[in-house]
Amino acid sequence: MPKHNNLIPNQHFHKAWQNHVKTWFNQPAKKKSRRVARAAKAAAIFPRPVQGPLRPVVHCPTIKYNTKLRLGRGFTLEELRGAGITKRFAQTIGISVDHRRKNKSEGPLADNINRLKQYKAQLVLWPKRKESKKHPRKADEAAPEDREKATQLTGAVLPVKQKEVRVKAQVVEPMGKGSAFVTLRRARADAKYIGIRKKKALAREEKAKLKKKD
């Protein structure tokens, strides 16, 4: 029984319980349908990469996570200019563009420009139109034999590699005898009274000069 002057519990847990039970018996069939949908999507976008366009490598925000790298939304216009790619052309060859993002440091800017150049060097570019005498193949477009050898990329496009920072162990020399507390108190006092001590030292020097003149 509940304590104090409270309502006596009378929960009706057996009322149509089967209507509130959630089951997951369709999980194996859903797993198969998702796999079939992924295969159909990959076939529809062939020869483009399955996992979407190329994205820039950016640093996570805040001091806690800024050493970690992740994929950003899109390349800046400055990064595209550095790699010699126009905004409109980038969107046609599988490069994501974010005109709102700004570059604030030289390091990530250079890294993303190199990333674009690496992607451009590995890119197999399909012609926009069927090759003919009227519409010959352009210099940057792949030859028919290269297009036949090309395969669809299923993994991430140029995946992110975290920078490993290894710190070598150093042998710390013993500080010797003495109290660390006293050393810190002296250093704090020296920093606090440096101006007063300089003023007193100048006053003593002036007194000594006056005595010599006399």
Automatic annotation (TrEMBL):
Ribonucleoprotein among keywords: yes
Presence of keyword Ribonucleoprotein: yes
Pfam families: Ribosomal_L13e (PF01294)
Cellular component per GO, a single term: cytosolic large ribosomal subunit
PROSITE patterns in alphabetical order: RIBOSOMAL_L13E
Region span, Disordered: 128-151
Single biological process term from Gene Ontology: translation
Annotated GO MF terms: RNA binding; structural constituent of ribosome
Biased composition range(s): Basic and acidic residues: 138-150
Keywords: Ribonucleoprotein, Ribosomal protein
Entry similarity comment: Belongs to the eukaryotic ribosomal protein eL13 family.
Protein name per its UniProtKB record: 60S ribosomal protein L13
